[in-house]
Write a structure and sequence with these properties.
Layout: E1 6-12, H1 19-26, E2 34-40, H2 47-51, E3 58-61, H3 69-79, E4 84-89, E5 92-94, H4 99-104, E6 111-119, H5 126-135, E7 153-157, H6 158-161, H7 174-184, E8 188-199, H8 205-222, H9 230-251, H10 260-276, H11 284-291
Parallel strand pairs: 1-2, 1-4, 2-3, 6-8
Antiparallel strand pairs: 4-7, 5-8, 6-7
Helix pairs in contact: 8-10, 9-10
């Protein structure tokens, strides 16, 4: 049997509301030379029941006690049978039928990792839309100097993963850590602006705080010489809140975001400050709260003022018939 060119690895936990949209978009891809592997870490909301309505090739199970982002990726890559492992979070979905082609097209001989564009939708908080625009510009980057990337929408060479497994001890930023190590070994990273997904974050302020705190803890482990002081917190919170207000006013988005903007930025940078200040190892209890909350900087210049707009070219995926799916 011929091996597929790509293995799409989807990490999921209680994503019943979102996973059908992702799987619909995956199986609408113009390229069909792929397999789909789900790595589930204890879903109890019917996620797998929805997933099994699609021709998923394999479901890999990981217990909540064993979960970390890096371990889930390692499980998925171990199960993969192809040249490339493509990572997609269960709460994202591709916008076009050439999403997978655009990711894989960037793999020249010396490229180990390609990551794609992320944008928000109608539920995305305004400050996070600006984060997406800054981190994921409108232009491709052929060979990136920094190790920034994001495994919510990325692909790697499996042969490189065989030499460099993901760090299972990190509380986040396992993608950044992996990219740094492979860059140090001489591999390149590319960014594909046309490989676009919608990333749906519906987080409470506490969840925003937890996300940035655990990522800051990991950042401190990856770059032990870097610091984020209380003065840095004040500067970053003030600067980003002011620039968000100015951008929102310019775009006519200010009335609905007067409270949301400072609330998001406060949780973002207070979480970062608290995470950088942690010197003790993360306890099992805190580790679990990061990943199962329901049971208990890489700046770039903005590439535009709004989300990307393209002419209709027959490549857009239609999701309207799925509205309300999973409810």
């Amino acid at each position: 049997m011929t091996e597929p060119r790509a293995s799409i690895v989807i990490r999921c936990y209680n994503e019943r509301e979102h996973i059908e949209k992702l799987l619909h978009g995956v199986f609408e891809q113009r390229m069909d030379d792929f397999e789909v592997i789900l790595v589930d870490s204890g879903s109890t909301d019917g996620t797998l029941k929805v997933a099994k309505q699609y021709p998923v090739d394999e479901i890999v199970y990981i217990s909540p006690e064993e979960f970390s982002f890096g371990r889930a990726l390692n499980y998925g890559c171990e199960a993969a049978n192809s040249e490339f492992c493509v990572f997609a979070s269960a709460h994202v979905y591709p916008t076009r039928i050439d999403w997978l082609e655009q990711l894989l097209a960037k793999f020249e001989d010396n490229v180990a990792l390609v990551y794609g564009k992320q944008r928000g939708n109608e539920v995305t908080k305004y400050p996070e839309k600006r984060v997406f625009r800054r981190w994921f510009p409108e232009e491709d980057v052929e060979y990136q100097s920094s190790p920034f990337c994001n495994n919510a929408n990325a692909a790697i060479r499996r042969e490189v993963w065989e030499k460099f497994h993901y760090d299972e001890r990190l509380t986040g930023l396992e993608d950044l850590d992996w990219a740094k190590r492979v860059q140090d070994a001489g591999w390149n990273i590319s960014y594909a602006s046309d490989a676009e997904i919608i990333h749906v974050h519906e987080e409470s302020p506490k969840e925003v705080y937890n996300r940035y705190r655990r990522e800051a803890i990991a950042h401190k482990q990856i770059f032990p010489d870097q610091e984020f002081s209380f003065w840095d917190f004040l500067k970053m919170f003030s600067y980003n809140t002011i620039t968000d207000y100015l951008a929102a006013a310019h775009e006519g988005e200010l009335p609905g975001n007067i409270i949301e903007i400072p609330r998001f930025r406060l949780m973002q940078f207070w979480g970062t400050y608290r995470g950088f200040g942690r010197e003790k190892p993360v306890s099992d209890r805190l580790w679990r709260r990061f990943y199962y909350p329901d049971e208990n900087g890489y700046p770039r210049e903005d590439a535009g003022t709004g989300d990307s707009e393209r002419e209709e070219d027959g490549l857009r995926i239609e999701y309207s018939k799925l509205d309300g799916a999973g409810e």
